[in-house]
Each structure stands twice: as structure tokens, then as C-alpha cells.
Amino acid sequence: MSDQVFGKVSDLLNEIESAQPATNEELETFRIRFLGTKNIIKPLFAEIRQVPDSEKKAFGQKLNELKQAARNKYNVCLESLSSNGHEVESSGIDLTLPAGPYEIGARHPVSIVMNEMIEIFQRIGFTVAEDREIEDDWHNFTAMNTPEHHPARDMQDTFYLQGSDKMLLRTHTSSVQARVMTSQKPPIRIIAPGRVFRNETVSARSHCQFHQVEGLYVDKGVSFADMKQTLLYFAREMYGPETKIRLRPSFFPFTEPSAEMDAWLGTDTEVTRRLTKGTGWLEVLGCGMVDPNVLENCGIDSEIYTGYAFGIGIERSAMQKYNISDIRLFFENDNRFLSQFRSVL
Question: In whole angstroms, how far apart are CA 118 and each of 115, 189, 289, 338?
Fold first, then answer.
């Protein structure tokens, strides 16, 4: 009985070796017979019961050789048919026709603006620091001098992880600054670009997720004047060499004194009048001197070191740069919108 089983395997192997499919149809018939889901080789595996134990291993090897021979034969014939043009002929493809247009991809406008900002700050010695988007309460709030009952901790503003009041989606990339300050010694000069989350009502002007580039410089003798000159350099690189800036007093828990920086766009056009609400000044970023409590929380001696920090919203800058009126367009993945930026790589 085992001789008959081995004989079937040999007959099929001879059939495979002698097969010469000349067309796609013949090759497909070969594939179905030897490699399809109901191929002729499968039933032979059930006949291993009829083979003596001493020959089972050899029989299994023969079956595997048979399967591999069928697969190799199919691949060789497929390549031969393709190179000879039979496959193309049967499919009706005319290789003499000119190729269709090849559409290249495009960077997202948020990425374009973020990269532009990163390059500006890298030219004056800032390095990029990135970290996690799921953050703990200490690095996101406590280290940044945010009191326990500060409104920013309220569930109305922050997305906490389900079942936790300590883990959350970061509300700013200041948490990256905290991690850098607790792991590195000054001097520290970094920018922290990334996505942040806040539980806000989605509208044309605000979204529950957006992007920031935050900066931090900590060293001996760092002053408010240093920060102002750095931000003036950024504004002129970003908006034009004649750009003027102004700093208005503000409040942030992690900086003291704090300020909002505006850039002068003018009122010459309808676009600038709309963006600046008729004032000519566009709010660009928040900034200030790092609060001594923040330095101490992160293990840096505030008697020796000082520093400044700033945070820039990417979407608002992109809206201004490309005259986009609705922030929601950045997150809708609409190719009609995104394809406009193919030439801006």
C-alpha cells in the first residue's frame, strides 16, 4: 500500500516537472490544480496513515518537496510569461501609451509651519526635545508651579485617563521642559514641539487638540532682555525683516514676570485687518521668566540660575500664514484642502 502512495507522489512530481503553461489561462489552471485551496496535493497528507511508521518521515519530506516544486514551477512560468509579454497581451494593456500623472504627496500645513519654527530656533542654538503625550500630573502641573486647585486642573480643561486622576493627555509641552530640567543640568536651551490636548469646544477658532512649539533657556545670568531679543529675532525670521513686536503684561503660573507677545502686521489689507481685528497687532505667543519655584521643583538652584520660556501655537500661525479661516480644516484629512500644499515641501 505504501508503494502506491509513494507512486502517486512520484507521478505528480513528474507531471509538475513536465508542465509547460504557455498562456495565463494555462498557468492559472496549473495554479488551481497544484496550489489552489482544493489542490490535488492536499489529500495525500491524509494518506500518511497508510505509510509504515519507519517511512512516515520520508513520506512527509516527499510531500513538502512536491509542494515546493509546484510553487517553484509556478513562479518560473509566471516570470517567463511576464517577460515575454503574454500577460500584458492578455490583459489588454498597451505599454506604448504615455504614463499617467504621478501625484506626489504633500506636507501638512501644520508640519510646514512647525518645521519652519524649529529651523529658526535651531539657527541660534536651540535643540529639539520630545517626550510622551500621555503625562503624569506632576510633570504637567505640579512641576510647572500650578497649584492643586488651579482651574487648569479642572476636568473641564484636561482629558484625564479613565479611572485615573494622575494620568492625563498633556495640556502643553511644558511637561517636556520639566522632564529635561529634572534630567539635565544647566545650561539648557531647548524647544519642545508637539501635540497637546484640552477639553475645549471645537469651533472655527479652537480645537480639542492642537500643536505647540515651546522654548526654554536656563543658565547663569539669563535676563528678560535676552528673551526679548530672541523673540524679536524669531518674529523677523518668521514674518519679515521689518517686523516690530510688543510685549504686554500677562500671567502664567510657571513664569514671573509673564508677557504676551504681539507682532505688527499692519492694516494695509483686508486680510491683516481681519486677523488683527483692526488693530494691526497679531498675538503670537506667551512668554516670561521661569518662576523660581519651577526651577526648585526640578532640582535647579534658583539662586544661581535664571531662565526664560515661551510657547507658540502652531495652528494659529499656520492660519495666518496661509489665510485659513477655520482651524478644523487641519484635522479633517480632506485631500482637497491638503493638496494645496504639494508645492510647499
Answer: 5, 13, 21, 22
The domain of 238 spans 109-341
Question: For the chain, what is the domain count?
Answer: 2
Tens-place pLDDT, residues 233-242: 999 999 889 8
pTM passes above 0.70:
no
* Residue 318 exposure: Cα atoms within 13 Å on the Cβ side: 26
Q: Are residues 87 and 6 in the same domain?
A: yes
Beta bridge partners of 22: none
Residues near 73 by Cβ (< 8 Å), separated by ≥ 6?
A: 16, 17, 19, 30, 34
Say which residues have a Cβ less than 8 Å from residue 75's Cβ, sequence separation at least 6.
Answer: none
Whether residues 206 and 73 fall in one domain: no
**What are the tens digits of pLDDT across the range 298-334?**
999 999 999 999 999 999 889 888 888 889 999 998 8
Q: Identify the domain boundary among 91, 125, 154.
A: 91
Judgement on whether residues 86 and 134 belong to the same structural domain of the protein: no
For 119, residues 6+ apart whose C-beta sits below 8 A from its C-beta are none
Q: How many Å apart are CA 312 and CA 120, to the nearest integer?
A: 13
H-type helices in the chain, by residue range? 2-18, 24-35, 42-46, 53-84, 86-91, 109-122, 137-140, 174-183, 224-239, 270-275, 292-297, 314-322, 335-338
> What residue type is 177 in one-letter code?
Q
Q: Which of 37, 64, 91 lies at the terminal end of a domain, its last residue?
A: 91
CA distance 20 to 18: 6
